[in-house]
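User: Predict the structure for this protein chain, please.
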Amino acid sequence: MTPEEEIVALRAENAALRAQVSELPLLRAQVEALAAQVQTLQARVAKDSHTSGKPPSSDGLKRRTKSLRKPSGKRAGGQLGHRGETLHLVATPDAVVEHRPTVCPACQAALDEAPVVGRERRQVQEMPPVRLWVTEHQALRLRCPRCQAVSVGTFPAEAPSRAQYGPPLRALAVYLVEEQLVPLGRVQQVLCDLVGVRLGRGTLVRWIQQASATLAPVEAQITAALQRAPVLHSDETGVRRAGTLAWVQVASTSRLTRYAVHAKRGADATDAMGILPGYAGVSVHDGWKTYRQYTRCRHALCNIHHLRELTFLEEQYQQGWASELKTVLREMKAATEQARAEGLRSLPAATRAAFVTRYRALLAAGHAANPPPARRPRQRGRIKQTPARNMLERLWLEQEQVLAFLDDLTIPFDNNQAERDLRTLKTHQKVSGCFRSDPGAEAFARLRGYLVSLRKQGQPLFVALQTVFAGRPLYPALG
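Assistant: Here is the predicted structure, written as structure tokens:
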């Protein structure tokens, strides 16, 4: 190769290298974007029930849920002082069977006339034979001996037609469907096997709709009582209804529960429920944006959600401040529980100030470890931030709502009340999969709210359902 040819080749190679170098910023940006995308996907896969709001059922069979609770150090099983359950003798048995010896084992004398000098009692508590009890009502026609007019007797309200099932059987069927979540087909089998009653599925559906219609005024009273509650828990979950996605809203306290099914998740659903629009107490929720639009009430955020998210940041992004903040939140919870047990209405000012100082110091440390992302040339709009940065900003800007439980001991640390009330809906999904129709979903919501409220207050549910079918439903305590 001549010197001239070598110079031409080197110039061509140099031009190619310059072209490659000019593409490096673009390639570097692509690599950074792909790395961020990989990290986002890895974080999404890593989320489970102990690092997010996902239910434990989504963890899969191989993943063992790591609870946020700390070990108590107690041995497994019943603890010292546990009341337990023991079968006791009843004072007035339904039947008494005496077992008399016939002859004396010592001298073989007959004991027919021997006096009783003592007795030992043993009882067998057994369910009586189950069968359908048929009561026939006869309306008699009587002729007046004076004027010869004929008077006809009046049938009771429980016998409106020629033949029907009474309130106890209807109550049992609805109890199995709505409280124990037994599918309609299995309820038919249970009643056929135990009682010998062959019911059609349409009959069961009609009874459920009848109970729902009777409980409409009770639901209205529960709604009004929840509007007056000083502290209200709210949450929502998705369900399948008539082949489409719907949302079940819950508003509850420790004594009352109200459910509502709606096609949408947002403000349309909560407005239709009719509780939050005029509510003026303390609304406890998980931070969903719909709840924040109601400004008449004070807001308090669920800190169990924060503990899960902090666990996620600690495990996936190695954020040391997140682990320390979890410890502080748990100490705050323990301090409020102790103060509540001592009859206080709020934490002592010095204790609260110390907690808030530690809380803000850890957030400051988190901000220092997670500086805001740099804006690239000619980049517009909001810059995408890391999960740690988003969490820090939320905990800082909303610390009044995060720490509301420190100021007023009637405000709980978490929103577990609403989550427990919604858990039944997820169980129903596992058993039945979905609601077949809109009326069925609405009836389930109304009946579940009624039954859950009564169970919270210790009322007998089966007896209460009998009053529903008798037309005089038992009301839960609304105060």
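The mean pLDDT is 90.
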